[in-house]
Each structure stands twice: as structure tokens, then as C-alpha cells.
Amino acid sequence: MVETFGFSRFSNQHRLDLKRWIQGVVSSHKTLFTVLWIVTFASVFLWQRNIVDGLNIFRRIPQRTIPKLRPLAFNLTDFGGVGDGVTTNTEAFEKAVAAIARLRKKGGGQLNVQAGVWLTAPFNLTSHMTLFLAEDAVILGIEDEKYWPLMPPLPSYGLGREHPGPRYGSLIHGQNLKDVVITGHNGTIDGQGQSWWTKYRQKCLNHTRGPLVQIMWSSDIEISNITLRNSPFWTLHPYDCKNVRISNVTILAPIYGAPNTDGIDPDSCENMVIEDCYISVGDDGIAIKSGWDQYGIAYGRPSSNILIKNLVVQSMVSAGVSIGSEMSGGVSNVTVENLYVWNSRRAVRIKTAAGRGGYVRQISYRNVTFDNVRVGIVIMTNYNEHPDEGFDPKALPVLEDLNFEGIHGQGVRVPVRIHGNEEIFVKNVTFRDMSVGITYKKKHIFQCSYVQGRVIGTIFPAPCENLDRYDEQGRLIKRAPSPNITDIDYDL
């Protein structure tokens, strides 16, 4: 028999139970309200983050990704590799890459290079491959150039950078690849460039030297947590690639006597991030390029959507971060932020000339520090080095929309040198929040010619007269008397 109760028949115990039940419900509702509030807040946060990510997508900058785990992994010793620094391992690398290439439909594979010194001639990578260098692993390039294959000139250069005709390939090379990772526990790829630099200076080479690592016409590339050193020529050269991330990479070469050992040279690349790197080399730390004169104009592939951040760079021969001089396909939408350049000849530089064509525009430098640098910011339009006599001197580059904000430092001889000319005018340059300690107490240390732009707020040292002055609220204070004033003193 089931007993039923009316409300009037509740006992004191039942009333107490009901009171506890109501309190529990109220308490549960408070808990529920709290949970719902947290969920709502988290949803708003995620929505805002998605909005930011969406904006990043519109900027077409690739987002940070976790390196893929391959379904299969191999050791180089599985293919006969010997890491004694004497045995040649070229065949072992080639066999390993061929085995991974057969796994492309299954997600590819990983090649582990264990601790040791693995001497090798140049070899190629394949798609869906991870090259993993263990701690104390060294891939060492053979010095004798007869083991380095010859390749056709880059189509946007027309000839080898140093000689007409073919050029030497890179120690590690790849073409038309997708989904390639080079990473590790800070293992090293060493090009043994000393013999190449000596032969170059003695003019004993008949072809252009090869890079250390070169990836061409490829996409979805990640290079991280390794050391690259002593490249024969440019160190890391992505050419006409998309979606590239380079992070936590150390790049080293002697700061003197190692010619053209640029650190990273994005060349006609789109959607690229370079972050958290240390670079000390014998030429530019980073040099963004897009082809050379008439060949680059005809190839027509710009470098665009590039983010460079959190770098420490030393370059006693050239500059920390350069754009050009080979920029004939155009360079746009580049952001350089949190850059520290020390003990260097120049900090940031844009270099071009008549005959280049192309453009450099929408370039932003933020939070840049100079420490013991001869010239901080350089824009030059007379870098007259050409592949041959076929260039068009009327192909004039466009330089515009260049922004400098948060520029600081000490021990700088000339903070700014902007050298436009009557043919190549530098347009829409902006300086804001700049304070650089200088080593010269003379006038004309902020040098300009044929430049139009503005200074917002107070900066040090005092800007050149070519630039309009605005206050912090963006109100015009003083219009420049003429943007064509020339105040360049190379003796300083």
C-alpha cells in the first residue's frame, strides 16, 4: 500500500526535511548560477580569442602548431649510418628518405639522427617527413665541392648569385614538398664553410656557393630547436614557400671572414613566422628577398605576410634585419617586433636601387633595441649591384608606409639614415616613441634626403627637417619646409 500525504498532514520532521530540501535547491541554484557565469565568461573569452585568431587568419600568418607525430620512426643506423665523423653517410640518408617517401599515404615518418657526427654529402628531403636531431647530433657537410650537385639558377635571379650559370645545391634540400619538419633537441647542422669561404676569397670557385638548408616551392614547413652553423653561403633559404614557421633556432658563423653567410633569407615567401631565434653571422641576420632586377620582375612572386619577433642578432658586416636588395617581386606586410641588435654595423636596413622595380611597403618595426650599433635605421636607394646589363634603369622601386615605434638603444653613431633620391622617393614614414643614446654629439645624426613622413610626439635625437611634426594627440605642429632636403653625411 502506498501512503499519500496532503500538505496539512506534514509532520515537523517533514517540514524540516522540506526546509532542508529548499535550502539545497537554493544552494544548488547558486552553484548552477556560478557554473553558468563561469561558462559564459569562458565562452566570451574564447569568442574574443577566436576573433583575434580570425584576424590573424585574415593577415594570413600561420598559427603555432604542435609538430606532428609520425606513425613510424627510424634511426639513421637502421640504414647503415655511422656517426664517427669519418664515415660518409650519404647513402644512409638517401635510403632513409626513400623509406619515408613510401609512407606518404600513411602520414610519413620520422628520421632520428642520434648523438654522433654524421658526415654526408648533400641529400634531399621528402614530404610528410620529420628530421629529428638528438642532443649532440651533428650532420656535417663534406667540404669537397665535387660532391655538391650543380643546380639551375633560381628563376627569379637569372644566374647564380656570384657566377653566371649553375649554382651549387644545398647540404639539405627539398623541392615541391608539403608537411616537412626539421627539429630536435638542439642538434646541429654544420656546413663546414671555412674551405668555401677561403676558395671564394681566392676566386677558386666557378659556381655560386650553396646554402646550408634550402626548401623550394613547398608549404607547411616547420624548423625548430636546432643549431645551424658555418654555412658555405646563405644559411637557411626558404624559396617561394608558403606557411613556414622557424622558431628557437640558433644560427652561427664567424662575424668576420664568412662572406654572405646570411642567417635566414625568406625569398618570395608568403605566410611566415620567424621567432625566438639567436643569430650571429658574417652578413645579414635576416634578409627578406623576392628576386633580382628583370628576372625578379618577370617571376613576380612577392614576399608577404611575414612576422619576425623575439630575436637577438649580431652582424658586424651588414645588418640585423634587411629587406633587399633583391626585392624586385615586392615585399609587403612585414612586422618586426621585439628585436635586439648588438655589436653590429647596422640594425635594420632597406636597400634597393633603380632597376629593381617592385615595392617595399606596409613594414612595421616595433620595440627594437640597438646596442653598440654604428647605424640604427638605414634606407638606401643606391645599392647598384645588378645580375647583368639587361636590367631596366627605369624600373624604379616604390618605398612607402614604413613605421618605426618603440625604438631605443645606446652607443649608436647614426640613429637614422634615410637616403631617397629624385627618382626613388621614400614616402609615408612614421616615427614614434624613439630614444636612442648616441656616441656623436654633432648635428645631422638623424639624416634624410627625399623622404616624406611624420614624427609623432617627442623623439631623441631630434628628427631631420624633412618630416612633419605632430603632437601625441596627432595634431599637426609644424609642416616640413621640404621633403627634398638632403642631409646625408657618410663620413659620419
UniProtKB/TrEMBL annotation:
Pfam families, sorted: Glyco_hydro_28
A GO term, aspect molecular function: polygalacturonase activity
Entry keywords, A to Z: Glycosidase, Hydrolase
SMART domains: PbH1 (SM00710)
Example GO BP: carbohydrate metabolic process
InterPro entries in the record: GH28_Enzymes, Glyco_hydro_28, PbH1, Pectin_lyas_fold, Pectin_lyase_fold/virulence
Gene3D superfamilies: Single-stranded right-handed beta-helix, Pectin lyase-like (2.160.20.10)
Listed SUPFAM superfamilies: Pectin lyase-like (SSF51126)
PANTHER family per record: PECTIN LYASE-LIKE SUPERFAMILY PROTEIN (PTHR31339:SF44), PECTIN LYASE-RELATED (PTHR31339)
Family in the record: Belongs to the glycosyl hydrolase 28 family.
Name of the protein in question: Polygalacturonase
